[in-house]
Amino acid sequence: MAQELTNNLFDIAFQLFNRVGDRDFEYVYKGYFDHDITKKILFLADSSIGRLTGFSQATLQKRIYYIMVEGLQNITHHQDEVANEPSFDKYPPVFAIQKYGDRYYISTGNIIANPNIDPLKVKLERINSMDQEELKKFHRDMLRNGSISDKGGAGLGLIEMSRKSGNKLLYSFVHLDDDYSYFYMQTLIPTDANFGVADMDNGQAFSSLENVKTLHSHMNKENLSLMFNGFFNQENLLSLLSIIKSRPNLPLTTIKISNVMVEMIQNIIKHGSKLSEDQVGVPGVFFLGQTGDETHLTAANLVQAGAAESISSNIEYLNGLDREQVSDLYDQILLDFAAETSAKKTGLGLSDLRIKSDRPLKYQFRDAQVGDSKFYILQTSIKTKK
Amino acid sequence: MEKLFIEETEDTPEVTLDPQEGVFKISKISVPENALDFYRPILDWIKEYAEDPNAQTVFDFDLEYVNTASSKQVIQVILLLQKVAEKGDVKVNWYYESIDEDMKALGLRYKKLVSVPFEVIEVE
Description:
The complex is a heterodimer of chains A (386) and B (124).
Chain A: H1 7-19, E1 25-30, H2 35-53, H3 58-82, H4 87-90, E2 94-100, E3 103-113, H5 117-128, H6 132-144, H7 154-165, E4 170-175, E5 180-190, H8 203-221, E6 224-232, H9 234-245, H10 251-271, E7 282-291, E8 294-304, H11 305-320, H12 323-334, H13 348-357, E9 362-367, E10 373-383
Antiparallel strand pairs in A: 1-2, 1-6, 2-3, 3-5, 4-5, 6-7, 7-8, 8-10, 9-10
Helix pairs in contact in A: 2-3, 2-9, 3-7, 5-7, 6-7, 9-10, 10-13, 12-13
Chain B: E1 4-6, E2 14-18, E3 23-30, H1 35-49, E4 56-66, H2 68-84, E5 89-97, H3 101-113, E6 118-123
Parallel strand pairs in B: 3-4, 4-5, 5-6
Antiparallel strand pairs in B: 1-2, 2-3
Helix pairs in contact in B: 1-2
């Protein structure tokens, strides 16, 4: 009954891990969006922006925040239109914020009825053909004469995103079925104020939209609803936690998921290797997904090559114990105060995961591409009660 | 003895240890990175309190979540309450939300490991 970690998921984690540079991050959320979750995503991004870039430019932060709000509202706006359609559950919306080097990318994806594609393209092309002055004027005219847009504020949002980013809106449509397509849109926000519209048309930006499409398709294939790739610290953990807690779909298991998540991410923070001492957190990847009646949480990070063996033997040992035996072991560790100051060594965290999950833990190691480290991936599954 | 009050943060609990009012309570959430430092003043306070405690001490744990690092400190709090029980009556109440199996399990675990009267109480 215990299935192996899919190699595919492992490959994805490995690939993601290796592509983020120092201080980069990417966060993707797939699923239902409401006001609460929007707020929490903004909060997460806010803490990541503040901490990870070290930029003090309030303008940049405000700009990113604003574009995120527009993007997220764009999703909620469209999801309300199609929420009653059968395709809505099958093709949930997706939101991504990524930072690579000196650029932020904010992307959204949602379904759109095929007949609406052409009118939307016209609107997007019109916006993209305008310079800042023209956009400003267009925006003013729209505000004066709301009837220009037959779709509520959707047009205004697009204009604002284009204005705030100082860049064109990248977009792409992916055909799903006879009725629907996915509409992807991406905004690039340079962290350097001088970097403007002229830099827009290069291939790098476009490949980043392709990258989001690929990520989204990975997430669909592996049934992932959330991924975070970047640096883990207590602050990120608390933000991710609040996002999980606001997920409306899993009321019964939400508590358990967030409990397990705390242990897994603190495990990364405590045991994961940093690439350099001045890093603001420990680099790692985290996925939340669902298969059948199980929710799985996957964490990946680097560990010292020398630690890999003791971690495997510890997990193998725990996996071999029955429920009562793990519980006894946990009591023993709890009362072992000699190991109190070296909480790291006790293995309390892994025993706890084994107890909470009530099934074997899955894990793998792979040679990392950096130094004397191993890439370590750990998955905890929880039975989702009906 | 002077009371100890620690305000809650995003990852540490609210703590009230007040012998005058007879309130002894740890509530909200306990998921700090460094549980040792957070619990040290609490453990020190109870150690001193155990010297000359109230005739009766009802200690309430009403925690949303306790991470493993904190769970090791919480057991120490409870073990110190055993010391308090040498000079006065002690009762521990462990509250958990009805759907939270993990906090219930942790409460039952503590109950099993200690000798003070310990009640695991479900709340809606």
